[in-house]
Q: What sequence folds into this?
């Protein structure tokens, strides 16, 4: 991991800072009979810096806000940030039907349920 030493004004001891900071995005998860919907708050992340993967029952969200350098850094508290979060998802998700949309810093994931996982009514016959 990148480390840099920063000298604080007044000659105090240097502060050790780290490069890429990892933050868990805030999410809302809703479920209805047809799908699971995940909303993830990813402010500042562009579509090309975002990845969504589903593998072996695990949903992984990852997005990076690149650092903006407009000169020599004297003090940095808001630098490059990576949003990362993992969730267990049921095996009954129709992976081919998953849809993702990023709008105004909010990622919306639609995870449709397979037909076998959807509730259904059973017809009762008389003998």
A:
């Amino acid at each position: 991991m990148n480390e840099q030493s920063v000298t604080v004004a007044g000659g105090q001891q240097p502060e050790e800072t780290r490069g890429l900071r990892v933050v868990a995005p805030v999410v809302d998860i809703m479920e209805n009979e047809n799908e699971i919907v995940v909303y993830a708050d990813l402010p500042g992340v562009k579509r090309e810096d975002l990845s969504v993967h589903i593998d072996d029952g695990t949903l992984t969200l990852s997005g990076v806000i690149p650092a903006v350098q407009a000169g020599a850094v004297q003090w940095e508290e808001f630098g490059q940030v990576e949003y990362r979060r993992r969730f267990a998802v049921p095996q009954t998700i129709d992976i081919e039907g998953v849809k993702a949309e990023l709008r105004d810093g909010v990622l919306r994931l639609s995870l449709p349920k397979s037909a076998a996982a959807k509730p259904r009514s059973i017809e009762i016959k008389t003998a």
Q: What stands out?
A: The chain is about 0% helix and 45% strand.
